[in-house]
Amino acid sequence: METKTGQSHIFFFPYLSQGHIIPVIDMAKLFASKGIKTTIVSTPHNLSLFSKTIERSKLSGLEIGVLAIKFPAVEVGLPEGCESAHMVEGYEDLQKFLKATTMLEQPLEKLIKEHRPNCLVADIFFPWTTDVAARFGIPRLVFHGTNFISLSVSQ
């Protein structure tokens, strides 16, 4: 999983909800503390929620970054800026939100093509990322928050 410079680079792509994003940030920081370049891919709204944490991590010497991916809220009939699951009200809007998450495939592919990570750690709610990673010949690891927390506690 090494890049041309000999350093591994992992993309982390959490589900768009704080309950998923927070443990992914912790995991990305853990990998970065081991010398692995990490990049968290999320929407502008969600990135703004944890940008200070990332900046503090960078200041402490970790190679951790973020990349924004536009969330197609308006395209599916949601209000502009509705980029997190906790912002959704009602079943109908939840269906729109879930549809919008599937529309992130092409923008994610573009970022992978541009940045060439060696691995993609994607949320369990993004099953389509398995195909994306396969197209680039990189492994896709599944992030499942409940499992991550239980594994962290047992070690």
TrEMBL record:
Superkingdom as given in the UniProt entry: Eukaryota
Keywords: Glycosyltransferase, Transferase
EC number: 2.4.1.-
Keyword Glycosyltransferase: yes
Keyword Signal listed: no
GO molecular function, one term: UDP-glucosyltransferase activity
Family that this chain belongs to: Belongs to the UDP-glycosyltransferase family.
Protein name per the record: Putative hexosyltransferase
Taxonomic placement: Eukaryota, Viridiplantae, Streptophyta, Embryophyta, Tracheophyta
